[in-house]
Input
Amino acid sequence: MELFKPLSDLEVGASYFFRRSEVIQGNIANVDTPHYKPKDLVFEKELEENLRLKKTDPRHIDPSKPGVKFKIVDAEDYSGYDGNRVNLDKEMAKLAETNLMIRMINEALRKEIGKMKLVIQGR
Output
């Protein structure tokens, strides 16, 4: 239903940022593990590619179908003295950014639910 589309879009974003937070926390937890390669969750590139799509011909794939996936990839090539590739400063910055995005999505969800309440109450 079109009424709930903003909530489902926000749900996808929340899922991504919660999962990314877990991946980054795993990197931080393995900061002292020799030869550990940090991971990251790729979503923005996939989202940008899907947002640019428009169905201009009936033979085209429908871009509105949910097909955006999260993909865990190895992060940039940083190497410490023991082969560990976790850069703690970068991981902490990514975690702070991710937490900020989660807070923004929570605020957007709160506002959308508030709008729905107004509609239901008939105001």
Notes: The first strand starts at residue 39 and ends at 42. Residues 2-121 form one domain. The two ends are 21 Å apart (CA to CA).
